[in-house]
Amino acid sequence: MSRILPHPLLTLALILMWLVLTRASLGHLVLGTAVGVGAGLVYARLETGPTRLRSVTALVRLAGVVALDIVRSNAAVAVLIVSSRRHRKSGFVEIPLRLQDPTGLALLAMIITGTPGTAWLEHDRASGVLLLHVFDLKDPEDWRHLIRTRYEALLLEAFA
Asked: So where does this one cross the membrane (predicted)?
């Protein structure tokens, strides 16, 4: 890894993707190369170091739980959108997390944001509190319990 190309495979993949998505020309090759090199340099600055994975089976179980929850959430949000809007109340929930690992937190952010009806708004690293927006909030304590027992517990098993 050099200072100019800290991630040569990432850079090459981004250049190729750029050329596939645009008409391949000399100008797009130059522009795609600039984007690829720039993205590689940015990614190198964001790296937190090697991730210590303790349990692959926890991640496999988490993938199954998340897949099931996304299907359920899609159905629930579709019903809410089609039905009367009177009964829906959006809101914010603060959830104290025990998870500190950056990779685990990034996965949790992707899970929450990728699940219809929820959005990860912010995480205070000092206090460990996650601010979550919920499309149809009935009981904040249910959401705290869900995030901590279904997702955070498996992420702690995998990364802590």
From this structure: 62-82
